[in-house]
Amino acid sequence: MFTFLLTDIFFYIIIISLIMYVAYVRKTPDILANWLYVFRNRTGILSIVVLSFFIITAFLDSIHIKNKIYNNNTKQYVYTSEIKSFLDIILSPMHENYEKSYSAPFSSHLYSKETVNFNNIDKREYPRLLYKGNHNKYSNNKIENIAVISLFSIIKSFFICFLIYMIIFYRTIFKKNNNFLNAFNNNNVLCTSFFIIFFIIILLYDLSTQYYVLGTDKVGVDVLYKSIKSIRTGILIGTLTTIVMLPFAIFLGIFAGYIGGFVDDIIQYIYTTLNSIPSVLLIASAILMLQVYMANNPHEFENIYERADLRLFFLCMILGLTSWTGLCRLLRGESMKLKEVEYVQASQTFGLNKFSIIVRHIIPNIMHIVIITVVLDFSALVLAEAVLSYVNIGVDPTTYSWGNMINAARLEMSREPIVWWSIFSAFLFMFILVLFANLFSDVVRDAFDPRANKKYE
Amino acid sequence: MHLTQEQIKNMNDLLSIKNLFLSIDSENQEEILKDVSFDIKESEIVSLIGESGSGKSLTALSIIRLLEKSCKIKKGKIYFLNKDILSIEEKEMREIRKNDISMIFQEPMRSLNPVMNIYDQLKEAYIDIKISNIKQEIINNLISVGIEDAKRVINLYPHQLSGGMKQRVMIAMAIACKPKLLIADEPTTSLDVTIQKQVLDLLLELKDKLNMAILFITHDLAVASQISDRIVVMQNGEVVENSHAKKFFTNPENSYSKTLLNSSLYLRKTTNIENQDDKNILCIKNLKVYFPERDNLFGRNKSYVKAVDDISILIKSGTTHAIVGESGSGKTTIAKAIMGLVSPTSGNIEILNKDIISMGKSDKRDFRKYYQMIFQDPFSSLNPRMRIGAIIKEGLCFLKPELSNSITNEILRDVLDKVGLKHNSLNKYPHQFSGGQRQRIAIARVLVLEPKLLICDEPTSSLDVTVQKQVLDLLIDIQNKTKISYLFISHDIKLISSISETMSVMYKGKIVESGKTSDIINHTQNEYTRKLLKSVPQIA
Q1: What's the pTM value of the predicted model, to 2 decimals?
Q2: What is the C-alpha to C-alpha distance for residues B146 and A213, in angstroms, rounded to an integer?
Q3: ipTM exceeds 0.85
Q4: Contact A343/B382, CB-based, under 8 Å?
């Protein structure tokens, strides 16, 4: 049976509004032309492909189901309290069994020595891993084995890509004057990036049936699985917070700057007051209040997943409420400047009302600031989550998140020899997400700036 | 004062530029300067003339070797005192900049450091010169550039000085090292005419006193004719003419030079008597616009800046009334008050005999189509993120919403024909057009509303001379075809005299003289107007 967590619903809303926006763009030729530029740009299409894989992962992780089990005592089907997402089902080979403790990437043994009783003799040695790392399927040499797996996944991904390609472009391919290679050349960046990403995904999937690609953590959970599960948390904190923050920042900023006077005073007082409260304290108090509420009303929550989810949602809200002030101030200044620019005055002489001027002239000309700030904030928010987890007011400790992984890595880094793969994989995933988000926003900004030097024109 | 051709021939070359090629690092490797060569002799004033983008400033910057990194000199030599300054070390070049070549820039507001006082800034110019009493030297220097109370001025900061004073300080800095060559890059462009005259006189005086050569860069032929011995004309990075000043202004060789000269001579508008009837289009009575000086924390301060003080103007149908005045005289405030961009303190503004100040909001909205305004700077008066079609349509959509789409499109095509733009411009963005074309777009935007009164706030002052003429011709052409009236605001009394029937001279918020243009130009009664007329540079 499907269950819907609070953040799931918001994630669906985001996806639906994205689809609605696409439909709207397809009808408006001006905006469509700008987006086509993004798609024709190499960096643009590459980052779209990468980001869409992140979003698909997060989406699969947002469809939650409960399993039905047959209760022998009551002779009835009941639902388990455990909630699984589609992603969990797809990734089940990664997390059905847990090792005992730390193990390095691709290792066949645990990372620390243990006392093992062997023929009644106690020995200190590195115990073998229980489930993975020792069953070399194709060859006894580990490197050869990995090479064979890689070869297979190249072939697999090639076939999958070819299939997808034929499905998408079958019309262009079978047109008369258009041969196969021609169609490929027109979309080579798209095809190559698709191929590479499919290859990486299939390779990781195949490898992790036999190895722990990024090692295991303290309680023996596959770090790769943890990192993939954290994508949803990262994207939710980035997007949901931004969505909470943007209306405040844009509307209050523009009203303050454009209307000025009394309105400006009030808005300035609000954000100065908000700014003067240290945001960590504000977040801490909000989260603590929530914890007290959850402790007093345990019956409202069916299971720990709902509690953790509510905490994540609440964190997004409170982060959004505290982080709009910076952008708001920027936009206030910019609209004050734009108010005096002659094209705004020219439309005042046409008798346009304030609302039309804001929509037609001010908002398009501040959008570049919004895009830059949103992307910078997106990365800052993913990092803020890590900082908040550090002082225990971030997401629930049971939620998979890069912040929690980094937080745990504090102790791992002080071990000798150090455990580096946990923080490395959190870093790697965050880096890829933030990097492509930045590249994407760069291209989008250029696409919507008519003065930018667009190469395809 | 001016040197004769024989005198010049006998002098030595101070600077000679030989076959200079320069290009900017970009995808298409465009050549900005193509085969530029000319000489400057000792104590000679050479004017470098050209429109924006012709490569004047880049030539100057290559002489002093302050080009941006992306500019590459491809070929050519620059000799200064027989030394090739393009091949010497940067250290040696610094010595030359310190002792022999100085430069003054266009914007005096931006060339002085706002956090240093005048004394400290001038001291930088004396860094290597060993003088016991440097303060006295600086004061003497300031007095020599015409700053009488130099003792007081050296303790002031740039924002406390007027534009003319700042430019004098800049000149004082430039001549501190007694240079052999002074490069002046449009030093008077941002100044008012009366101050412009003072600065030009000062440069001439200093040239004789210090025996230095001046490379004077300007787009204004009249200014060039006032001071130069020789004229070098540049077009698209090439030198198209290099001749003695007298010869240039009487008999230019090159066709481009001829166009330039013709553009500076405005043809008088043929007043079309049919167009005139006695209908009042605009009638301003006792208009006052005061701005409160500062809101302090406890209630309002009672002091005001009187931007416009008791002004009355009357414009008849089909005529042009001009307002002339220097910057800060309140010309633009009148325009803004009429358009409702600032609210007047008191007074009446009547358009077509209807008082627009007391008019209700919705009536005013319907009425707005009868009076419109074009702005000074076509680069900031068009929204950079809107296509031309949307820009022109904007007024139509809001002021004449009853029009159907097909009619609107027809009007758009019509108006593009009228202002001389191609039909495919509708889908382009403003940055794809030049300054003159943008001003045409701005004119088209108001023209679609068929206004009775058009306020032109310095519509040509940011344009090149040849383009200025085209835009003015367009405005006059439109007036001859329709019964439109103009309120033309300008600082250029020369321009106004050729296009307006009546005019007012403004000074510090007040009209000091008003009447028929020909009367005022030819026999003015007012002291200030006389001064203004005298300061206007004329082509000798």
Answers
A1: 0.78
A2: 80
A3: no
A4: yes
